[in-house]
Specification:
The structure holds two protein chains of two kinds. Chain A is an alpha/beta fold. Chain A has 16 helices and 17 strands. The two termini of chain A are about 45 Å apart. By secondary structure, chain B is an alpha+beta fold. Chain B has a single domain, classed as 2-Layer Sandwich (Alpha-Beta Plaits). Chain B is about 15% helix and about 20% strand. In chain B, strands 1-4 form a two-stranded antiparallel sheet. A two-stranded antiparallel sheet of chain B has the order 2-3. The chains are: A alpha/beta, B alpha+beta. Chain B: GO terms for molecular function: 4 iron, 4 sulfur cluster binding; metal ion binding. Chain B: InterPro entries: 4Fe4S_Fe-S-bd, 4Fe4S_Fe_S_CS. Chain B: Keywords: 4Fe-4S, Electron transport, Iron, Iron-sulfur, Metal-binding, Transport.
Chain lengths: ~525, ~70
């Protein structure tokens, strides 16, 4: 166990939680710290905080690098990179389904020219789309010509759009200079291990230097190349996010080591994601019954690592052709057929004007949160709990319970409200009637939450939620998430103090594995 | 005997197309197809046939026994 984890563990057990007091002091200084060990993580939380201005400028409009930005700004992926150079036991790219949403899945691949047309079409329709990523469906750097050709064309046609890519890292060292030259200032590397013994259980083979390598040898080459690539990128000031798939029994404990290894090499953000595994995916892990982690297991691991560096909690593990805010997928609106038929005019001024309005809302949201937080200052309770929020963006509680395709999960304590995850669900309401089966699934998905915040909710799901011990809250409809959650938490603490209610620990929650039943 | 690609198993990822030293592979009808006249089984180029080594689906790039050896 590392020192910071020890600190947290010993603090958690003591009667007076110094970590929380330290956090409360830090909050009053205007900086949101989420780590108990004094590490500032303002950057991926709210506002600039202690982040150097040059880094803040890079991440502030990037939904994947800034939790705060992801409520307001959208991203898109273009599927120009079908080939891959490694085999992962959690991946099967033959699978495509419009209702599936996970990495490696794509409905159609694009040429660089088609991709640019699509980028311009999306940029005109969704002016808050600020980021273009290439993430597959294979590996962008196993398709360097198509990948860099796309970046070049987009940079010329839409120079205000940020470029980023996501790679397995095998070919990364060979392309770092090109990445720097194309001004790609965000690179994500998927690193699941720093120990070849563990790697051999995740990667059956790699293709490198015209040869297929297997077993320990494959895992060793892959890991060396990943870490070398990471070092080369951070030396050049390129921001790196590390994605790690949490595979219970294989690398779950080991990801703490991975976290240390990537932090020491200058990674900016660590994104530990749950394994998505079901037999119908046809992956090795899906077929051999390897399970994914529960929501609690995932959060516990993320919490251990957060003492060391910024953790991403808002990743939606999106498709290689996703379009829109992270929580939504509008790719069906932008099929090649539809895009080619569109008359696209790229209007930079319109985009700038729209984004300026987004910024105004964003400032108002952070200010409202700070104001509400000040009211919590005198509270000394040690209670920490989770709440689920139905939102369709802009940081507002603006989705009906029955229409939600996901719930964002916030952890509430006297230090404030922090996004710690999200749960995908099937829509409860379909064409005017509620589905009892999907209600049970939704309750399982948010079973660890004390309350669910919605814009509106019907009588039947309301009473079922209450029966399950989850309080439906609709009094903050169309208000800011954090501000409302803090206000509700304050009244919750008061109700506990007066004895009106009793604080009880909630149970486990399930992370959705299979495709959504209803069409997006 | 050149290699051929079993169309029903091909994911059309084009990884083989990029690796083939003979530029013998192209996409036709939604899958990758090897031109048997150009395939050399990678003899003289590499230790192992590149399409076989890079293909994500095992037993998809196979020897076409109906044709004479290279």
């Amino acid at each position: 166990m590392d020192v910071s984890a020890l600190d947290e563990a010993s603090l958690a057990g003591s009667a007076v939680n110094i970590g929380e007091i330290m956090q409360a002091i830090a909050e009053h200084k205007g900086c949101g710290t989420s780590g108990g060990s004094g590490k500032a993580s303002c950057g991926s939380q709210a506002g600039q905080g202690e982040l150097p201005t040059e880094i803040w400028e890079k991440v502030k409009n990037h939904p994947c690098y800034s939790e705060e930005a992801h409520h307001h700004y959208a991203r898109m992926h273009v599927a120009v990179a079908p080939a891959c150079n490694i085999q992962c036991n959690y991946c099967n790219r033959k699978y495509d389904c419009a209702n599936e949403s996970r990495p490696g899945v794509v409905s159609e691949k694009l040429t660089p020219e088609q991709a640019v047309k699509k980028v311009l079409a999306v940029a005109s329709t969704i002016p808050q789309m600020t980021v273009l990523g290439i993430a597959g469906p294979g590996d962008p750097l196993a398709n360097p010509k198509k990948t860099f050709m796309t970046f070049e064309l987009v940079a010329r046609a839409a120079p205000d759009i940020k470029l980023c890519l996501s790679t397995n890292g095998l070919m990364l060292p060979d392309h770092v200079d090109t990445i720097a030259r194309f001004k790609i200032d965000h690179v994500t590397i998927t690193i699941n291990m720093v120990d070849p013994e563990i790697g051999a259980k995740i990667y059956p083979w790699i293709f490198y230097n015209h040869k297929r390598y297997t077993g320990l040898e494959a895992a060793k080459i892959l890991n060396d190349r990943q870490l070398q690539g990471l070092e080369m990128l951070t030396e050049r000031g390129i921001l790196c996010k590390i994605n790690s798939v949490m595979i219970p029994g294989i690398n779950d404990q080991h990801l703490v080591e991975v976290n240390k290894a990537v932090k020491s090499r200058g990674a900016f953000l660590h994104n530990i994601m749950p394994l998505i595994s079901a037999p119908e995916h046809g992956t090795v892990f899906g077929l051999n019954g390897q399970r994914g982690p529960t929501a609690q297991e995932l959060k516990a691991l993320q919490d251990v690592c957060k003492g060391a560096m910024n953790m991403m909690r808002h990743c939606r593990q999106c498709r290689a052709d996703a379009v829109g805010l992270l929580g939504e997928d509008r790719s069906a609106e932008f099929t090649t057929e539809k895009v080619m038929a569109m008359d696209v005019k790229y209007d930079l001024e319109m985009r700038k004007a729209y984004q300026a309005k987004v910024e105004e809302k964003r400032v108002a949201k952070v200010a409202a949160e700070q104001e509400e937080l000040a009211k919590l200052a005198s509270e000394m309770s040690g209670i920490k709990l989770l709440v689920a929020v139905a939102t369709k963006g802009s940081g507002l509680i603006n989705e009906h319970f029955g229409h939600a395709k996901e719930f964002q999960v916030y952890e509430l304590s006297t230090t404030g409200a922090k996004l710690v995850g999200h749960r995908r669900v099937d829509q409860y309401c379909r064409g005017g009637y509620g589905e009892e089966e999907s209600l049970a699934t939704i309750i399982r998905a948010i079973n660890d939450c004390h309350a669910v915040f919605v814009a509106k909710i019907g009588g039947c799901p309301k009473s079922n939620l209450l029966k399950a011990g989850i309080e439906p809250v609709d009094q903050y409809a169309h208000e800011f998430i954090e501000k409302s959650a803090i206000a509700w938490f304050k009244s919750y603490l008061e109700r506990v103090q007066t004895g009106e209610i009793q604080y009880v620990d909630r149970g486990e929650a399930a992370i959705r594995q299979s495709a959504l039943i209803s069409a997006a | 005997m050149p290699f051929k690609i079993i169309a029903s198993q091909c994911t059309s990822c084009s990884a083989c197309e990029q690796e083939c030293p003979n530029v013998a592979i192209s996409e036709k009808g939604g899958t990758s197809v090897i031109d048997p006249k150009k395939c050399t089984e990678c003899i003289g180029h590499f230790e192992e046939p590149q399409c076989v080594a890079v293909c994500p689906v095992d037993n998809t790039c196979v020897i076409d026994t109906s044709l004479p050896r290279y």
